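Support reply, case 0932

Customer input (verbatim):
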Amino acid sequence: VESATKKMRSELPRQRIIKEVETFDKSNCTEVVDWKEAGFNWTALNTNQQLYFGEQALRLPPNSDYTLFWPFVSGRLNITPSYSTQHILSDLSVLWTHCFTTYLNSLSP
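Our regenerated output:
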């Protein structure tokens, strides 16, 4: 009798957790969004353009031949075996040059 009571007591918290997870899963269903109805537009690819920055880069079509690089992740350089320090510094140089010529030139009188 005592072992059966202990088993029932240990299963009660587990059953409660299972019910909470099931409730959470039901309330957090994913929703399929029609991107055209949501007003989302993919970046129109230009055959002469080799680089895209910012929102244009984030909206590249999934079937394009471009690769997104993230020089920073969580405030740190994103150094990985496939993304070296030299590659990151080169990308940052191109990014900064783009920002200076695009945004700072437009601010000058």
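We compared this against your earlier run and they match. Two observations from our side: The helical segments are 2-27, 54-58, 85-104. The CA atoms of residues 95 and 101 lie 10 Å apart. Please reopen the case if you see a mismatch on your end.
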